[in-house]
Design brief:
- By secondary structure, this protein is of the alpha/beta class.
- Helix content is 35%, strand content 27%.
- The strands form four sheets. A seven-stranded mixed sheet has the order 5-4-13-14-15-12-16, sandwiched between helices.
- α11 packs antiparallel against α12.
- The longest helix is centred in the last third of the chain and has 28 residues, at 320-347.
- The two termini are 22 Å apart.
- Pfam families: FAD_binding_3 (PF01494).
- One of its GO terms (molecular function) is FAD binding.
- InterPro entries: FAD-bd, FAD/NAD-bd_sf, FAD_aromatic-hydroxylase.
- This is FAD-dependent oxidoreductase.
Length: 392
Amino acid sequence: MRVVVCGAGIAGLSLAWWLERAGWEVLVVERAPEQRGAGYLIDFFGPGYDAVERMGLLPRVRERAQRVAGVRYRDPTGRVTGTIPYSSFLRLQRGRVVTMMRGELENILFEALGPGVEFRYSTSVDAVTTTDDHVAVTLTTGEVERADLLVGADGVHSRVRGLAFGPERRFLRHLGYHTAAYLFTDPAIAARLDDHLEMLEAPGLQAGVCRLDGDRCAAVFAHRAPADSLPQDARARLRERYADLGWLLPEVLDHCPEPSRLYYDEVAQIETASWTRPRVVLLGDACQAVSLLAGQGAAMAVAGACVLAEELLRDGDAVAAPLRYEARVRPAIVRKQRAGRRTADWFVPATRARLRLRTAVLRLAAAPGLTGLLSPVLTTPADRLNSLRPPR
C-alpha cells in the first residue's frame, strides 16, 4: 500500500509513523523548505497524550516539557490581577498533561520516523485525479505520484482540501480574533521572568510572554479583529494594536521579527460536510481545526492520525477506512469546536465588565477545593470520548 501525505506537521508526521511501521510506502510532501520546529507553547493532554504513550514516545515528550508554574494575568500597567496555578490544571487532567513548544512535539515525531518515509520539501499538490483503484497526485514539481490514498494534512489553509473539496471560504469560520507568535532571545527580559506564563490584558486583546531555556523567550498575542482583515504588514499591526500595554511589552515588541518570519493568522475553525472523498481524506487542522484559543489542536491531530491509521490497518481499504475514521472522530471535534466558540470570550474578554468577571472567577478558583470552577474552560467533552483512544 502507498500513501501520499501532504503536510509534514504534527498530523502528517503522526500518520507517517503508524503507516511506515506497518509496511506502507509513505511519501510526505511539504511546501516549506525544511522542517520548521518552531511554533508556540501548547498544553498537550487528552487523547493525544494517550496516543503518544501508545507510540512509546511519551518519555521523549516529557523530557522536552517546558517548566510552567502557572498563568499570571496582569493589567496594562503590569499589576497582577489573577493567577491559575499549573497544579490546578494537573489535577483536572490527573497529571496526564505536558506543556511544551509545539515545534518540539513536531521534532519528536520527525526523529521517531523510520527510513521508509520519503520527504520532498518545497513541494505541494497541484492536481488530484482519482479512479476506482488509485489516486494520481500531480505535484508542484510536475511529477505525478500514484498511490492508494492521498491525505491532506496541510493545515487550516489546506491545498488538498481546496482541490478535492472546494474553496476555503466555504469551510472557514472566523471566530473574530487574530493571533501571532514568535521566539526571541533577550537576557534582560529573561531575567525578569520566572516560570509563569505572563498574560497582559485589556478589553479585546491579550499578550503573553514566558521564559524558555536560557535567555530564550516566547511571545504570543490574540486580539479581536473582523473577518477578512489580515494585515499586509503583520509586525506593524502588532505594534499598533498593543501600543497601550506596558510592563515588559514594549521591549518584547522590539523583538518582533520581519513579517515573513512572524506567525500571524486569523483564529478560525474548519467545518466541512465531509472529511473524505474516494481515496482522499483530510486530517488535522485541514478538517478539524478547533482554533488556537480552544486549544488541543496538536493533541487532536495526533489522536486523529492514530484513529485513521487504525482503520487503514484494519483491512487496508483506502476507501472505506477513511469513512470509519471520520465517523469515530468527527463527533468529538464538533463538540470541541462548539466549546471553543463558547469559551473564546473567556480567554480574550471583549469588555471591561467581562474582564473583571473573569478576574473574580480566577481569584475564587485559586482557593483550596475550588479548582473545579475552571473545568468548563480547561476541559471539554471531547477530552473524555473513548472514540479517540489509540488502538489496542
